[in-house]
Write a structure and sequence with these properties.
The complex is a heterodimer of chains A (290) and B (297). Chain A is α/β, with parallel strands linked by helices and 290 residues long. Helices cover 46% and strands 13% of the residues of chain A. In chain B, the strands form 2 sheets. An 8-stranded parallel beta sheet of chain B has the order 8-7-6-5-4-3-10-9. A two-stranded antiparallel sheet of chain B has the order 1-2. The chains are: A alpha/beta (290), B alpha/beta (297). At the A-B interface, loops of A face helix 6 of B.
Chain lengths: 290, 297
């Protein structure tokens, strides 16, 4: 699975201050540490960058000084996006476009112009679709439009948009189905997901286990890429195949009712978490205590 | 194809909660099927309908609601008796509106509750203000003074379930576990509460809202709570559900506008929640209660 490191994000204090003051060093350190952690892309999130679209150009340049990894340019501002795309040395990823009219007019054409990959979300002017069918319907329409303006399926990374678990547990299991379905409805397209949103609203110390296990489940359904916390070691080890026993237990819990009594505490937590993510048990913040 | 081919059986059954004490008790819950699915399973106890009595004179009630209680509004005991004797309510739910007054004295409030409880042939449901801080001393004291009455007491919230729950446990009452229209939080509170409190003495209040003011959300949450209990047999969601309908319905401008509209507003809110799975419904206007009773049989 392609991992996109999310740690250069405007919502991080260090990042926002460094970008504002054009201090390259803390940002470059973050880039290097993420590369060392083993991610495949570095995401550069500058927010809407309304006042200074050129900030993306600067950020791409200082990032390229310390890494050869491809970059995922993360802004809703097409001007900032283009300023960054113009200076990328390796084929970058646009993060992201959608089916909304303004995105069709201003963001998607950049993917054609710069011949790069683009994350396309299921969002449209009608809002965020809430079930598998409406996700499929929304994305097919946007993909058809993208094809028309010269973007091949192979350059499109579909983002199904995930709500936090504590907002809508049912769609978490449905997303697995959507990811499974995607190659059939749009052959050649890739997929991508912002993983951390899964555990938004969950107590901080309980977030990693949810993220880790869900990513393994998605990987089983051939999710192509995910935006992740580069510093979650266990997560990276799991998807890189370094923890096969854990992966096997997750698969087993997806397929059958696993008897908890024969398991260690850690294994029980894994099974309980799978059961929450498949919708088998109703989620609450105390899901590991039951 | 036979008729039975279309029927489902479910693996979960809702717990029976006994409200009251020996010789003076009612049971809610106990069904092993979805609301009104009499054809699929057993529903041993019909939804109960309670009328709400306040322990102060309601300040913002319209005349067309007050007029049902004109002669008894000064005296909660007489008011409660009228609900039972004249209007044939199954139960009375006492709203401790006096706790909202400046300098409210928990002991005086609790002794008044005891007086009302003693005067009635049925057990009492008692609702505090729903304020996480101010309810604590009052409901603790009510639990103590009314020890052994087996009342249904609440609401207990995520911030005060330990203190109020402990008192209800010590003095033999059941509790109403209330969370703000969120099923995950509802389960969370049940998980925490049931670490020290018996599950068969918990009633879920998913916090219902009136028609036009979020009833659709209330319906979805309540329906899902019931489904998770009955269909998925989730041990922590098998408690019966209470729908506190009257107070919110009569806050709406629509209900205040006219008697007919108010009764429709309250009745439709109550019926909707009955369909979603409420096992005990609290109303304010006796005519709404009659309409609901007539409709659900």
């Amino acid at each position: 699975m392609i991992l996109i490191g999310e740690n250069i994000h405007i919502l991080s204090k260090v990042v926002s201050v460094s970008i504002k003051e054009k201090k390259a060093k803390p940002l470059q350190e973050l880039v290097v540490r993420q590369a060392e952690a083993g991610v495949d892309y570095i995401d550069l999130n500058v927010g809407p960058a309304r006042k200074d679209p050129e900030v993306m150009k600067w950020l791409v340049e200082i990032t390229q000084e310390v890494t050869d990894l491809p970059l995922s340019l993360d802004t809703t501002n097409p001007k900032a996006m283009e300023a960054g795309l113009a200076v990328c040395k390796v084929r970058p990823l646009i993060n992201s476009a959608s089916g909304k009219e303004e995105s069709r007019q201003e963001m998607l054409p950049l993917a054609a112009k710069y011949n790069c990959d683009v994350i396309v979300s299921v969002l449209t002017d009608k809002g965020i679709p809430s079930d598998t069918d409406s996700r499929a319907e929304a994305i097919m329409d946007t993909i058809a439009y993208a094809n028309d303006i010269g973007i091949p399926n192979e350059s499109i990374w579909v983002d199904p948009i995930m709500f936090p678990l504590c907002v809508d547990q049912v769609q978490i299991a449905e997303l697995l189905e959507f990811i499974k379905l995607l190659p059939d409805i749009a052959p050649g397209v890739k997929s991508s997901l912002g993983l951390s949103n899964l555990s938004n609203g969950v107590p901080h110390h309980l977030r990693p286990i949810l993220n880790q296990i869900y990513l393994v489940m998605l990987q089983r359904y051939n999710l192509y890429s995910s935006i992740v916390d580069s510093f979650d070691n266990t997560l990276i080890n799991l998807v890189k195949g370094r923890l096969p026993e854990t992966v096997n237990l997750i698969y087993r819990a997806m397929d059958e009712d696993v008897d908890l009594s024969a398991l260690s505490q850690e294994e029980r937590d894994i099974v309980k978490t799978v059961n929450v993510l498949t919708g088998k048990t109703l989620f609450s913040n105390s899901w590991l205590e039951i | 194809m036979k008729f039975n081919d279309f029927l489902d059986t479910y693996k979960g059954d809702i717990k029976e909660v006994i409200i009251g004490k020996e010789g003076k008790s009612v049971v809610i819950g106990g069904e092993n099927t979805l609301p009104f699915h009499y054809f699929e399973g057993s529903i041993p106890h019909k939804p109960l309908l309670a009328l709400e009595v306040w322990d102060t004179i309601p300040a913002n009630w319209p005349q067309h609601l007050l007029s049902s209680y004109d002669d008894v509004i000064q005296c909660p005991v007489a008011w409660a008796k009228k609900c039972l004797n004249n209007y044939k309510a199954d139960l009375v739910s006492l709203y401790l509106s006096s706790a909202d007054e400046e300098g409210a004295n928990p002991t005086i409030i609790a002794e008044n509750v005891k007086k009302i409880a003693d005067a009635l042939p049925v057990p009492l449901v008692v609702y505090g203000l729903g304020d996480k801080d101010r309810d604590v001393p009052v409901l603790k004291e009510v639990a103590r003074v009314c020890a052994g009455e087996g009342m249904l007491l609440g609401p207990v919230l995520k911030d005060n379930y330990e203190e109020i729950g402990k008192a209800a446990l010590d003095y033999g009452h059941s509790v109403i576990a209330q969370t703000p229209i969120d099923i995950n939080l509802s389960k969370e509170l049940n998980v925490k509460l049931s670490k020290f409190f018996p599950r068969e003495r918990i009633v879920i209040d998913p916090l219902s809202s009136a028609l036009g003011y979020g009833l659709d959300y209330s319906f979805s949450i309540m329906e899902r709570v019931k489904q998770v209990g009955v269909i998925h047999a989730d041990e922590l969601m098998k408690m019966p559900i209470i729908g506190n309908v009257g107070r919110d319905s009569w806050k709406t401008k629509e209900a205040k506008e006219s008697k007919e509209q108010g009764i429709m507003w309250e009745s439709i809110t109550a019926l909707t929640l009955a369909l979603a799975g409420a096992n005990l419904i609290i109303l304010s206007h006796p005519e709404s209660m009659h309409l609901v009773r007539k409709t659900i049989g």
